[in-house]
Design goal:
Chain lengths: ~400, ~700
Amino acid sequence: MSPAATPLHGRTVVFVDGVRTPFGRARKDGLYAHTRADDLAVRCVRELLRRHPELPAHRVDEVALAATSQSGDQGLTLGRTVGLLAGLPTTVPGYAIDRMCAGAMTAVTTTASGIAAGAQDVVVAGGVEHMGHHPLGAEFEPNPRFVAERLVAPDALTMGATAENLHDRFPALTRSRADAFGVASQQRYAAALAAGKIDPDLVPVALRDPERGWGLATADEPPRPDTTLETIADLPTPFRAGGRVTAATSSPLTDGATACLLADEATAVELGLPVRMRLVTYAYAGVEPELMGLGPVPSTHKALARAGLTIDDIGLFELNEAFAVQVLSFLDAFGIDDDDPRVNPYGGAIAVGHPLASSGVRLMIQLARQFAEHPEVRYGLTAMCVGLGQGGTVIWENPHHTEAGK
Amino acid sequence: MSTYTELVTHAFARDVQLPDGAGTMVLVTLDNGFDHTRPTTFGPAGLAELETTLRAVGERVAAGGVAAVAVTGKPYVFAAGADLKQVTTAADRDSALALAQAGHRVFNLLTDLPVPTFAFVNGVALGGGFELALAAGYRTAAADVRALGLPETSLGLVPGWGGAYRVPRLVGVVAALDVILTRPAANKPFTAAQAAQIGLVDVVLDPADFLEQSIRWAAAVVRGQVEVPRRPLDDQATWDAATAAARARLEEVVHGSRPAPARALDLVAAARTASRDEAFAAEDEALADLIMSDEMRASVYAFSLVGSAKRPVGAPDRSLATPVTRAGVVGAGLMAAQIAVLLAQRLAVPVVIRDLDADRVAAGLAAVRRQVEAQVERGRLTPDAAQRLLGQVTGSTELSVFAGCDLVVEAVTELLDVKKRVFAELEQVVSPSAVLATNTSALSVTAMAAHLSHPERVVGLHFFNPVAAMPLVEVVQAEATSPETLATAFEVVARLRKTAVLVTDHPGFVVNRLLVLLLGVVVDAVDHGTDIEVADRALDPLGLPMPPFELLDLVGPAVGLHVLQSLHDELGPRFPVSAGLTTVVADRVPIVLPARGKGLPRRVDPAVAAVFAAHRTGEQVPLDEAGVRDAVLAALSTEIGRMLAEGVVSDPRQIDLCMILGAGWGFHLGGICPYLDRTGWSTRVLGHRLLEPGVADVPEVAAVG
């Protein structure tokens, strides 16, 4: 028996469906080197509508799309530009949103709140990050006060350095644990791919390349399924001489986009839209910026408290693997084993990649699929850390569970 | 000609995975490495590269593991056809034949693959480019494609890379004749939706994710989930009836003036029963003959001439132009109203029209409203844009309304004194920098400006009727016209999206001088005893847009006579004034019969002969058709010689450009100069050719070799 959670006030918000582009390596020879970021988002929005002909496009009340760098091909109010480019009716509004890595997650929670409050019935929420076109921080001018007044440690803006800081803070988090976690992520992703659990959520993207002609992205580019403990044992530690964080225990720089449909449950029933998850509640919390990766711990405590649940009520976890050590710090904080099968059963960002502001919805897409596989699980959560010391957690209920909704 | 270098179209092949495990598709992309402003075309090197790619694809298909093959293009362009400039470098029939055969050889590689083949028509697909798409088994097209078709017969060629054989079999013989003959003659390519309607393409997909959805559709075809119905071959009777009707129509419209349409029709007629190899061999022979024809060379010359006219010859530096923020039109007649609408629409500035009394102004504004509303009805303007346009055009009887105008165009009665007075009055109210333009068709711009304080600001802007449709504006440089004024005139014409040709201030400029001369000579022959129907038919072998009396009717016999009289006065008796014509105008005698069908010529009403017979003067020398034709061509040659000597234009090419865009004279004539050269008239009359050999015809050397 699971206890009934305390949901958000107001109407019940459901996750109808989600899709993403295959993820590409953010490199000059990467999948999307010649593809615009907004075009990636357009593919996702169109695919959602194509998969749900029961949803009249004019019933979409909002398009909220996140990007960390909102300029160039990610500029000018993405939700609106992508809506127009995707062929949504001009009556459908849209906006852009930013909470760095938790951009898409914030797009979901913000619009979900609007649905709960009755301001919207159906929304598109998601995110895009073309890190090849927009390297993290490249367009940011830090206020000199951050350093002058020691508001943050000098390395707080270097995400890999914050990961090294976590190793310092928690000596139990060793490189060997991180390496093992990184290898497991690759293996779990490879197994999920082979089992056909990745492809159904992907939308193919045509790839323009003036030197090679058109291609089609149909699979994620970042995974390295051949990774073993041996092959990564001697990898350098780019963020600190003699450090512990390597390329194999970090999420790669990635290009990609995600989008999902959320709806008021009654509207979903009215339109015949599927209900794949029910939103219970969510929370964000801050930590010291130089320990950025620890953010999901307080945000999860906060969300569980609001929901009236404990960590033991959570049967599935989708945690964004910005760094292996950062996920491990979460698992230690909640007394969960490193190889707990409830955590990231399809692998995570270390394998598939982390296109910053789009990753939040990838976690939800995968949790929704796992819910269908595990009707015995009533609650799951998606959580992620955010640059400058934040964490975000969303708790979901599995509609396939026998007691769901009660 | 040997300096010509091909912009090579590359053919890249990449594997893509079809959805739901339907297998691997090899996707071939045509790309010349430039953006859409340099469309991909096929020259020998590009064809060779496509051949290499398709042969490699064929080997892979044979080895197994390939479920489908598709071809697509770079953004906005599928392929724009054969590299025409390159085609005209063919020095002999053998190399022309080889080029034709190369296209078939390469395209057949796609057709003959043992797996389903697709063309994803993502952009412009014309001529050989569209024939490549036809060589595939199935075609998707993006909904935003607006230029799709087989324009070859308008360029002196036939759709000879499979089009003449495949199109009638694919869409039926009646629709095929529209694709191959009618649309090219009207210069109207198909949109994607129109192409799908007749079956030229199988499915139209949204441009937003066109390639992805094309691949998904192709996968459904590969898996057998989508079946594309193909219409059965039309029966022989239908085939014969359609081709016979088309042949009769060609007789009436083309009169053998150019060989391409009839050759294309021959190919279509045979396509029903011919084997593919026979049909393609016939296409090769037709292409080889036509590539070595003067008509084809003149067509490519004309095509290039029109294409390069965006940069007008002789225009001063653009930086000298004065920006126009407000424009005025003097007069509120029909031409004035048309010019006002065009200025307001394209310059997007307030336009004021002024006439002498309130009734005329009201009539002018009503004409403006009618034109704008007609555009809304045709879907060319949104209601909001129409409101804006109508708000921009105002009328007045006060001269002072022109005070803030940077440009004032006069379109009042064609009387020199009236126009002089208009300009003198304008000078009192406009700023010193304002440009004053006249839309005169035959009066001296220099005389109009002579008594002004600032004659340097006066220029001619000779629009053609109907203003909205006619692409040419003759920009008339008077003796005193300043470079700044001229630059403003060219800039305005460019922003009106018209083609400007610089002419100096001589009576009739280019188009009217030659058209009215032609009419004068034809009518004069009738005055001197030539049968009027003979005279009307005499120019048929040139393939002009219409016979002379239909042209006279279109211009309006009164206007025609007026211009003829004025050119007679200024240029002399080479422009004969006809007593018969004077009576026709005075008595408003109808001169042409109704057309016997849409697009067919209107022939002279034989009853008019009596009017002319009553006024015959001088010696009666009845001519036959050849005699009338000789008289016209000799007169045209003489006149062009004089115009070049007078410096009306800098180069014979400018005359051709004017006749193509201002009179609609055919590409196959190259305007007119290439025709006079290849028929020997220029040499006989002037003692020299107008253009170098090879510029717009097949050079003699090649014909011998």
